[in-house]
Amino acid sequence: MNNISNRLVISVDLDEWYHARWVSGSKISRWSNTIDFFRDVYKLDTPRGDIEKPTMEILELFDNFKIKATFFILSEVASYYPSLVKEIIKCGHEVSSHGKTHVDLWKYTRKEFYTDLKDAKSILEEMTGKQVLGYRAPNLIIEDWIVPILSELGFQYDSSVCPSRKLMGKFGSTVNLPMKPYYLSEESFIPGNGPLFEIPIPVFPYLKLPAATGIMTRVIGEWWSTWTLKYYLKKHDTLYYFHPYEMLPAPDVDGFKFMQKLHTRRSGLWMKSAIKNIFEKFQDVPKINCIDLMNLYNVKN
Q1: Are strands 157-158 and 134-135 parallel, antiparallel or unpaired?
Q2: Is the pLDDT of residue 4 over 60?
Q3: In the chain, where are the structural domains located?
Q4: CATH homologous superfamily for 8-296?
Q5: pTM for this one?
Q6: Please, what is the Cα angle at 134 between 130 and 135, to 5 degrees?
Q7: Confidence of residue 28 (pLDDT cuts 50, 70, 90)
Q8: CB neighbours (10 Å) of residue 214?
Q9: Confidence grade of residue 3 (pLDDT, cut at 50, 70, 90)
Q10: What does the DSSP assignment read for the chain?
Q11: Is it the case that residue 298 has pLDDT exceeding 80?
């Protein structure tokens, strides 16, 4: 990999497995919200703390590979695990917003989206003592109307665009957008001269299906993500992201259907090994977080 001079952006969505669309927060979910899920499955009003151990393992892994990453955090998760957020900050990683709760965008009116995201941003900023500059949409479901809202709320970059074909009831509308980091227009996710910087999530070349994500690493195989990253790193900076819950064994829930089993495939030890292998394969490639990449692209102040 010594011939590659572009940078690999590393980020983590600090989600628990119950944030998956088939569990809660979407039209296809088994539970209408996370509280109902907690009460039905955990017999509690709060989560069990499953996210803590794998997140600490990720922080240790990042330290071993000298990686400073971006953690996209729901304010819901931050409220349940404030000490975990403080540990992420202590380790020198960037905290960005993943919204308030992990629900599809269709559940919001524009006013509701604005209010919830403003609250989510404020919670993280109060908790971290730092300005939150980045955003990633839950489930990567976006509409052009959120762009001016992000700007109004003081965000400086977004990392929600995944130029994939339609898949599992989402994607498709951004399939022709760039794979290279770029500036958005003022009113939409198309390239333009607006203030927001976009860091897209890579898709598999030609097939145009999601690739550089932990879920696709597990479902299809490590080679799928590795080949994609090699392809784009020869052209420009690119990104890889994953979730802490993927480092845990697949959840034991009654009534798992085929797609749900597929979604949790190879969770646990296999994924831990795969992430380590990816970092080793790209050891000579500079690793960077989202905010540092944005600064290198001369963000407008």
Answers
A1: parallel
A2: no
A3: 8-296
A4: Glycoside hydrolase/deacetylase (3.20.20.370)
A5: 0.95
A6: 125
A7: confident
A8: 24
A9: very low
A10: -TT--S-EEEEEE---GGGSTTTBSSTT-SBSSHHHHIIIIISSSS--STTHHHHHHHHHHHHHTT---EEEE-HHHHHH-HHHHHHHHHTT-EEEE--SS---GGG--HHHHHHHHHHHHHHHHHHHSS---EE--GGG---TTHHHHHHHTT--EE-----PPPBTTB--TTTTS-SS-EEBPSSSSSBSSSS-EE-PPPB-TTT--B-SBHHHHHHT-HHHHHHHHHHHHTTS-EEEEE-GGGGSPPP--TT--HHHHHHTTTTTHHHHHHHHHHHHHTTTSPEE-HHHHHHHTT---
A11: no
Return the higher-pLDDT residue of 301 and 279.
Answer: 279
Which amino acid belongs to residue 301? N
